Amino acid sequence: MNLKRSIFYLAFLSILLGLGSCDDHYIYNDGDDPEWLGSSIYDYLKEDGNFTTYVKLIEDAELKGVLAKTGSKTLFVAKDSSFSKFFESNPWGVNRYEDLTAAQKKMIIKYAMIDNAYLIETLSNYKDGEVLVEGSAMRRVSSYSFKDSIPFLSGDQLPDGGKYWNYYRENGAYLAKDNTNYPLLHFLPSQIIKSGITDEDFELITGVSRNANDAHIFDIKVIKRDITCKNGYINVLEDVLTPRTNMADFVQNNESTSIFGSILDRFCAPYYDAGLTQTMRELTEEEGTFGGNDSIFVKKFYAQLGGETNYPDNIVIKPKSYLLNFDPGWNSYVPDGEGLNLQNDMGAMLVPSDEAMDDYFNNGSGRLLKERYQTWDSIPMDIAALFVKRHMRGSFLSSIPSLFPKMTDAENSKIPIETSNVIDSYLGVNGVVYITNKVFPPDDYVSVYGPVLFSENAKIMNWVVLQNKFRLYLNAMVGDSTYSFFVPTDAAFEGYIDPYTVGKDVPAALKFRYDFEDDAVYATVYTYDIVNNVLGDSVGVVEDQTFINNRLLDILNNHIVVDDVTSGKEFYLNKAGCHVKVEGSGVNLKVQGGGDIVNGTVCEIYKKDDPEENGYYDQENGKTYFIDKMIQTPTRSTYSILSSDTSRYGEFLDLCTGFPANHTYEIFVRKSSYFGVDYSVKFFNTYHYTVWVPTNEAIRNAIIDGKITPWESRFGVQGINDMESQADREDAIKKLGRFLRYHFQDNSVIYDGRDKNLVYTSATIRESDGFTYFDTYKNKYFKIGVETDSEGLTLTTELGDKVSMVDKANTDQYNLIVRDFIFNNNPTSTKEVDGSGTGGDYSASRIYTSSTAVINQIEDVLMCEE
């Protein structure tokens, strides 16, 4: 080659290497070719002498014209020596060239071909719109089309996945595994570096090792690259490349993953493809092959991304929980997310081996599944979907082995996989399959929610959990959170005393039922006798789902305790901020809400006929208790307790209710923004509190001693309302308001005889400087010290005074659990639950929020300032 030609050749290579588009424009596609450029792809292979098998494949597949004259191609070929190895062992079981079918010959050629000319270095570049992305491509569509080989499957070869396959059991069907293109997967130096794949990752994924500058197509090494021909480039592979299948097809047909594959079967169906059927009929005239009444179907999965959301008969798939995250059989899978496409990422699946599945089901935490459903095939679709989705990964690049320690599922829950759990792997056209020796069950299976999910007797509770998106909350495995989840059985969802109605002429109690067809819960309304705690006649049915969910959400919050209720205490706060009383443990546990304590009712663990099965489940993040009745929330308000017994609380209540309307220090209110059962505490704010109520005698003594000023003149003390000076009145009102608010504190305190010494914040803000017992800063809330032991309870004030609770023998004067509800409208302006009266419809009522409190009577007043 002379100097001039050498310079031209180097310049030509520089142009090729500098090209970075996703389609390297092969500059000699048109016009005259320089003599030095060499032969066509076909001629090069034929003249070389090491590719006689490949040349014969080209000729038999009738692709000589394509590879000898026209177009620009990138071809990955194998030498004759590689074909000798191939015929010793291959996925088709073919022992000699003569036994290859026409379809197989076409597969080998076309799958190893890309319909553009690429150098190895530029295969990892692609165009995202008009933007060139360099070094990130790992997949590229091959020349092989699913139309090149649509097999006819007999009935026993079809997925065993449900009724939509049954019609074809007898006669079989033409079935395309997918109707999108087959990509090639390549691992190239720049892409390996940019994606963070380590050599250890690569070896675990592919089963082969690599050096820094190696290039691989799937797991096959490129041993000679970038052979430049007139119509493209040739790259020589170490072994023969045959078409790879997608992740789903591999799992469903792999002997070691048959159990997981059978579960996948349930999420796919045959979908008739009219366009494909017509195209194939036109492409062939062979009688009986895509002719006459023959039809072509495509296997598609029920999935939100890339799959089907309707069944083959066009019925919408309900509930949506039946849908997988993406279609694992989608050859051209494109991840969901901005900037993601076919080239730069793919999917992944963690697929437990049959041995791992058996061990989990029979010996591991999956025993609860087995006890409930007996076999994998009997597990309901929504529950099976959770299992499959937990093992599906939307991104291969976030699932490489070196990232296993950080791996989380789609709900950000950790997947505890280690590299030692991977016993084999498979590189498919749309992702990698890691075959594991361990099952990674969804948190739903092992959390306190699990028994509800699996139960046929907890449909109502499951409905309200899902409606209010409490699933993830109850599945939380982070930190030291321990749940106690109380679950009334469906039969126990009756007798819910509706707090909205307790102040009406006709109070109501509700009975709930779940309707499977509607996937809805309805309620029957009964009249309720508050005095005798007895249900009366049914007076109507409520179907309004917003009303139903509003009441059930309140019930749900009252049945969750973020604590172990067998830790030794007597009372625990539930998620609604109400105390529940607990005694016993395990199957002998008993629980009462504030309403139950008043009514003398008890919730016990649901006992089944089989002594080996009961309503108690010890889960990974707590315990689940199926109970025989609903925990009844308190229906009494702070005001109703204080006004119910004036002989004990009258003096304190009189002081609290004497403020002018809308005054800054007003305590009990009833106005448009504070609709409650009766009167609500103005400064309660969706939390739990304690109200320390001095005895009547203590209030009177405080008046006599000049510590407080009454509203009316008494005991020789001028009352606020009798003061002539407005300034004096305002000063006295403020002082009284600050005094009273010091008796309301944040955090509810229940006396249970246990040793405790804690300090809480009151509702009175300090406005002066100087020393206080708790050294409270100015403009901060005064504090109250609470000390308890087996003898009783003692409070310490900011003045250092000690005040005791009433005699602990007087159990009806302390630990009075109350709840101040806030509703969307005034119960008094609503019709009675039986439809009588005037006003708004009862079913339009809503519980907006609530605050809870514990009322404890004390023997003296609390003073925070002189």
Calculate the mean pLDDT score and round it. 91
Residue windows where pLDDT falls under 50 for at least 5 positions: 1-31
Given the C-alpha coordinates, what overall shape results?
elongated
The beta-strand count equals 41
Radius of gyration: 38 Å
Please outline the major beta sheet.
7 strands, mixed
Percent helix range: 10-25%
Distance between the termini: 109 Å
Order of neighbouring strands in the sheet with most strands:
2-1-11-10-9-8-5
Tally of DSSP helical segments? 25
Structural class: alpha+beta
Question: Strand portion, in percent?
Answer: 15-25%
Your description of this structure?
With 866 residues, this protein is of the alpha+beta class. The strands form eleven sheets. Strands 2-1-11-10-9-8-5 form a seven-stranded mixed β-sheet. Strands 6-7-13-12 form a four-stranded mixed β-sheet. Strands 17-16-19-18 form a four-stranded mixed β-sheet, sandwiched between helices. Helix 18 (459-467) packs across helix 20 (545-557), helix 22 (638-644) crosses helix 23 (646-656) and helix 23 crosses helix 24 (696-704). The protein is elongated and about 125 Å long. It starts with a helix and ends in an 8-residue tail after the last strand.
